[in-house]
Description:
- It contains nine helices and six strands.
- The chain has 232 residues and is α+β, with helices and mostly antiparallel strands.
- Keywords: Acyltransferase, Cytoplasm, Endoplasmic reticulum, Endosome, Lipid metabolism, Membrane, Sensory transduction, Signal, Transferase, Transmembrane, Transmembrane helix, Vision.
Amino acid sequence: TMKNPVPQAASLLLEKLLLLIHVRPLPAGSGGEPPPPAPGYYDTSCFKRGDLLEVPRTLFIHFGIYLGENRVAHLMPDILPAFTGDRRQIQQVVTNKRLILGVITKTASIRVDTVEDFAYGGSILVNHMDRRFADQVLGSEEAARRAEKLVGATAYSLLWNNCEHFVTYCRYGAPVSFQTDKFCETVKMIIRDQRSVLASVLVGLASIVCLGLAPSTTLPTIFIPFFLWMAG
Length: 232
């Protein structure tokens, strides 16, 4: 088990605020979910079974394991599997409402989607994390089989069991999340110095004044360090 890098009292607050990271922003004025790219949008000829795929998002990165034939296994927060076993409903693209409720209730599924549904229009990096695990990369077939065995409902935590934990276990044999560790270390540094908390709030307020209100970036900058400081 991993040692929690932040106090447990702050863990729940972090998870609630960090759900903003995984929400796909809707186009301005859109009343529903944006359609995913059409099939064939990505060139999958360069992907190999067992590859680790990364899709950079606004703040964090989404990860998956390529299974071949335009299929990607990835861990997604999703409330729907807790209410139904209908695969046709579950297999539909996860909406923002399903995702947010999944984060809040800590329910998720490791699912198989097309590359288009997995990436949702973002750019894809292939095996970019291999440089961190030079001597630990498992065989491509072993990575793919691990991913396939884990497909189905699972518990979820933004901090302790997210999509990065899933792919690093499959490809490297160790469930870790560098982006979570980095974020928590930053939070710990902020907590140690109350002046940094005030500076962070001021920077966030300045961002609102200069750039306008952006919930996915500005609000976490202000509220995460503030509430963590209060919790500490």
